[in-house]
Amino acid sequence: MSAHSAPAAPASGIRFERVTVAYGKRGESVALDALDLTVEPGEVMALLGPSGSGKTTALRAVAGFVQPASGRVFIGDRDVTALPPHRRGIGMVVQQYALFPHLRVAQNVAFGLKARRVPRGEIAGRVTEALEMVGMADYARRYPRELSGGQQQRVAIARALAIRPGVLLLDEPLSALDAQLRSGMLAELARLHRELPDVSILYVTHDQVEALTLADRIAVMDRARLQDCGTPQDLYRRPRTEFTASFVGNANLLPVTVGGATPGSVRFADTELTVTGADEPGHGPAPGADATLCVRPHLVGLGEGENTLRGTIAEVQWRGSTHRLFVDVAGHRVKADVRELRETPALGQSVALHFAAHDAVLLPAGTAPQATDPAATRAPAPTPAPDLAAAGVAKGAAPGAGGATDG
């Protein structure tokens, strides 16, 4: 490359090809099972799932902190499976900030640049640029102890951005913050995404609000496997499995039998209900099959309507602008989120609920989450001593600097 040519843009986009991570002498404890997933350049992909689902293991496989037992990891067009972390061109932000307490903010942000041997004359400008992006330029000379938790996390993000990565890995970055700070940081991360349209972001979280707010697509993980993947709107409005319906948002899941006296109907207990598309070939379980009816609580109204269910009030929760009603219907608990009621129904009171046919979705039966002993399927990943500094993270700066290992 000539002295006047522009530096190559960092590789963006992530691709997992049948990536399996296993522990134990014979690899009997599987932490990630044959993951196939592509994160497009400039896309925010959220890995969403409960503890032990494999989401953090997937992120660590991209970072180079765990070695796959099989399969390959690509960043851009490069196979990085065997590369060390500092050669992958990634920035990483973990849950516990991992800032050096004895270094000022600017020095913390500069740390990754020095580890990468960026020319001394460039470092000050890139530090200022990164701090300005996260609104922390006025705090450059402070120490971490002089900052709030949200400010420390902003500095950690600035440090990851200073190296100008093509891929940014975020491992539960907001879980240590209180609710108000989380809300503010979500807005900041959304703004950063708009300002960095070429950076691919892999965001690990168990918080559905974070995933729905930030992600272009969500990959739903459970028991070391990818269960579903799609846009937030698709997964919320038209989930494909009971697990997705229950984990991405809240859902009423009722056992039904497809088919009834009228077209597009299903039978729940002794009640016939209508579901849009229930009688269309190839659009769900076949007539006569067992299925699960999914309808979101906010789409269930109080009183009679298109599809009416009758039951008794089991619990009422006031949530400010809404009341959540828990109604026992034919041995099942149905949730309804309704506008704040002037008069709260009494426990045991008989009520009617209703929902529209187009607001319900039919799912295949038997796709609900299963209770398993995580220890039977995987072992906790051994905490490595990776080169966090080269990935834009301060190595050994604070307890938990490597992030969570149970996801």
Automatic annotation (TrEMBL):
One of its GO terms (cellular component) is ATP-binding cassette (ABC) transporter complex. Residues 367-407 are annotated as: Disordered. It is an enzyme of class 7 (translocase). Pfam families: ABC_tran, TOBE_2. Gene3D superfamilies: 2.40.50.100, P-loop containing nucleotide triphosphate hydrolases (3.40.50.300). Residues 367-398 have a biased composition (Low complexity). Residues 14-248 form the ABC transporter domain. Signal peptide: none annotated. The keyword ATP-binding applies. SUPFAM superfamilies: MOP-like, P-loop containing nucleoside triphosphate hydrolases. This is ABC-type quaternary amine transporter. It comes from Streptomyces buecherae. The lineage of its organism: Bacteria, Bacillati, Actinomycetota, Actinomycetes, Kitasatosporales.
